[in-house]
C-alpha cells in the first residue's frame, strides 16, 4: 500500500513539472548608448566629408616686398680707340698696362734695326734699376691695395696683383735701361732707327683688344652678349709690328656703361627709377649707377652709367654684377592664388548708364524688346569692358546707344590674371596687375579699380575653386 502511494505521487509530480509556464525575456535600452551611437555616426560622417572634400585655405593679403638680388653678366661699353703702328719694327712698350697717360706721355717705341732692343737685353740685371720716390710710391700703392683687399680663399686677386706688379717692374726696368744707354740711344733716335711714340690724347692704356671697341649703347645687339666665341688679343705678346698693326688701346673717358639683359618683369618693375645700386662680384665693391631703359627686338635691357671703377675692369668686356637693395613693394600674394580667366570684351561705346546709377550698363536685345542689363565689370582697358557669362551668353546682341549698330557678345575675348576674393564667403574673381614675381610670391599693384586691397581674403589654391563657390 505504501509503495502504490509513492508511485502515484511521483506520477502526479512529473505531470505537474511538465506544466511549467515560461515568461518572455525582457530587453532594457540605455539612453546613454543611443546618444553615443548618434554622436559616433555624426563624427564619422563629418570625417568622411572632410577627407573627400577639397580643403581650401584662405590667405590674408598684406603689404610686402620681394628683394631681387639678381646676378648678371653685364656688357661693358667704354670710349675706346685703337692706336695703330705707323711704321714697322721691333716694339718696346714704355707705359704700364692699365696706366694713365697724358697727351705727351711715352707709350711705346719702334726699333727698325733691332740694335737698341738687343742692347737693352744685354745690359745689366734688375739690380741696376734706379727708382725715384714716384716709382717707389706706385709700387707701394699696388702692394697696399692688394693687402687691403686680400682674400685667403679667392686667389683671383692674387694673380691680378702679380700681373700688375710684373708690368710695373718691367716698365720701370725698360725706362731705367734706356736712360743708362745715353749717347747710343740719342744717336739711334737721331738717325730714325729708333722712334718713341707719345699718346695723342690722355687716357688709360690697355694692351689687349677684342674687336668690340666701337660698340656703343645704341649699336649693341643681343649677339653682343654671346660669350661662346668671345676672344681677346694680347698686344704685348707681339715682339714686332708692321705698319697698320694695332699696338695698344686707349680708353679716353672715366664715364662708361654696363648693359644688362633682363626679363620683362624686372624691366617693368623698375620703370620710374633713375638710380640702381650694384655690386661687382669680382671684388665685392658696391656703387650707385644712373639707370636707363632700352627695348630692342623683343628683349629688355638696363643701361647703367658709371663714373667710377672703370680702371679696375678696363680689360673686361663682360663684368659680373649683382643688383642689390632692389625691394619691389606692393601687395604680396602667393603665386598659387593666381588664376587666369577668359572674359567677353565689350567696346566702351556700347556702354550706357540707367536706373539712376553710375554703374556701366548695356542694352541687350531680347526678342522684340531691348533689356537694360548691368553685368559685373571685372576690368576695363582704354577700349573695352571685361564681363563674364553671368548675365549674357555668347551670341547675344548688344545695341549701341542712339544707334542701330549691334555687337555680338563673344566676338572678341581676352584673358585676365586674378585671384578669388572670399570676403563674402564665396569666390569672386578680382583682376590683378603683377609688378614683380619670383618662384613663390608676386607683388601686385595697389589701388586698382577692380583689384584687391590690403587685408582682403583670397583663396590660396586658386585653381581648385570656381566663380561663386561657397568657401567655409
Task: Give a written overview of the molecule.
This is RND related beta-barrel domain-containing protein. The chain crosses the membrane at residues 27-48. Pfam families: Beta-barrel_RND_rel. This protein is α+β, with helices and mostly antiparallel strands. It has a domain at 334-464. Helices cover 22% and strands 33% of the residues. It contains 7 helices and 31 strands. The chain has helices spanning 2-17, 31-52, 115-122, 133-148, 156-181, 183-191, 264-269, and strands at 58-60, 62-67, 70-77, 80-84, 89-93, 100-101, 106-111, 194-198, 203-206, 208-209, 233-234, 240-241, 246-251, 256-262, 275-280, 285-296, 299-306, 318-323, 327-334, 339-347, 362-366, 369-373, 379-380, 384-387, 397-399, 406-408, 413-421, 428-431, 434-437, 441-444, 457-459. Strands 3-14-17-16-15-18 form a 6-stranded antiparallel β-barrel. It is elongated and about 165 Å long. The model has no long low-confidence stretch (mean pLDDT 83).
- On the 0 to 100 scale, the average pLDDT is 83
Walk across the major sheet and give the strand order.
3-14-17-16-15-18
**SS elements, strand count:** 31
Share of helix among residues?
Answer: 10-25%
Fraction in beta strands: 25-35%
> Termini separation (Å)?
96 Å
* Major sheet details: 6 strands, antiparallel, barrel
Radius of gyration, whole Å: 44 Å
Q: Shape from CA axes?
A: elongated
Low-confidence stretches: none
Number of continuous helical runs: 7
Structural class: alpha+beta
